[in-house]
Amino acid sequence: MDINNYNRDYLLRNVLVAGLQVKAYEDKYERTDYMYCIENGLEYDKELHQSLGYKLDAYKDIYIKDLEDFVNCICENNDIDLDDLKLYYKEKLEND
After folding, report:
1. What is the DSSP string of 12-42?
2. 32 Cβ contact partners less than 8 Å away, ≥ 6 residues apart
3. Is the pTM here over 0.90, yes or no?
């Protein structure tokens, strides 16, 4: 396996793992929401809810960073100028 494939696979793995963590913390966070607890007869734990919220935000940041790294790797390996691509889509969005 050459280094480019290894990097791509490694970065893709990071994206997938972080995405799964985000989904897991979203589910946990929603199940500790005040209204969810009241509606389901559960005890609301504000500290747990806040802690899960902080972890969810952290994993979202990690997910976004891993996704950016993966996109950068793909662009570098395929001679795509990411800045030109961003500019193209920015202009396209503004014109739509």
Report:
1. HHHHHHHHHHHHHHHHHHHHT-HHHHHHTTP
2. 44, 45, 48, 49, 52
3. no
